[in-house]
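## retry 2 of 3
previous attempt timed out at serialization; input unchanged, resubmitting
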Amino acid sequence: MNIYSAISTNIWKSYLILVLFVTFAGTVAYVLTKGIGYDPSVGILIFIVSIIYSFVSYFFSDKIVLAASGAREIQKKDNPELFRTVENLAIGDGIPMPRVYIINDPSPNAFATGRDPKHAAIAATTGILERLDKAELEGVLAHELSHVKNFDTRLLAITAVLVGFISLLTDMFMRSLFWGNMRNDDRDNRAQGIFLLIGIVLAIIAPVIASLIQLAVSRKRELLADASGALLTRYPEGLASALEKISADPRPLKTATGATAHLFIVNPFKGKGFQGSLTNLFSTHPPIEERIKILRSM
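## retry succeeded, writing output
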C-alpha cells in the first residue's frame, strides 16, 4: 500500500459509512414514529432540534476542550522549537497557522481541535515534547494538522448529530410505550402493529449500532490522518516510531475524559481503570499495531 492509495481508500470508506449512517437514521426515524402512531415529520422536527443544539456546541467545542484539558496557549518565545515545527508544517500543508497549546502532563499525547483550519488549535503534552525526537514529533504534529485540513472535526460533528438524533427518537419511543400515549386511532391497525414490533427491536439496538458506526467513522479518519501526515513529512517511520513510544508509556493523561478521548492521537486512558480496558470494538482509534504496520508498509 502506498500513501496515496491509503488516503483514497480511507476517504471513500469514511464517507460511505456516513451515507449508510444517514440512511440508517432515516429508517429508524420512520419506523419509530410510525410505531407510536405519529407522522414521520415528527422525526424531522427532532432532527432539526439536534442540528441546532450541535451547531451551538460545534462553535464553542474547541474552547471547552482546551479548557477541560488544562491546555495553555504559547507564543514562539515560550517554546521556539515546537512553534516553528507547527509553523513549518502548516506552511507545507497550505493551511493557516493554528494556535499552539501545551498541557502540563508527563503522559505523551497530543490532539487537534477547531471547527475549520482558520479556527484550529494543536495541543501537545510536556511528556510528548520530552519523549520524542524531532522526526517523531513532526510525525505527530503532521497527523494532527491532517485532522484539521481534512475537516475531521466537522465530519465527526455530523456523526454526533446523527447519534444524538437516534437517541432522542428511541427515548421518545420508549416513553410513549411506558406511558401508553400512542395515537389511539392507529392502535388497531395491523400495519401499525408491525411497525410497533419492529420499533421495539430498533429502540433497543439502534443506539448501539449508531455508536458503532460513529466509532467506525472515527477510526477511518485516524487512519486517514496517519496517511496524510506521512505524506506531509514524507517520512512514515517518524510517526510509526512516535506511536510506539506513546503507546508504550503506561501513564494515563490526567485531564482526559470520555468526551475528549477520541481527539488524542493515542487512547489517553491506557491503564486507567475500566476505560483503559475497553475492547477495540468500542475504541475510537484503530489498534496501534495496525496503524504502525500500515505506516511501515508505505
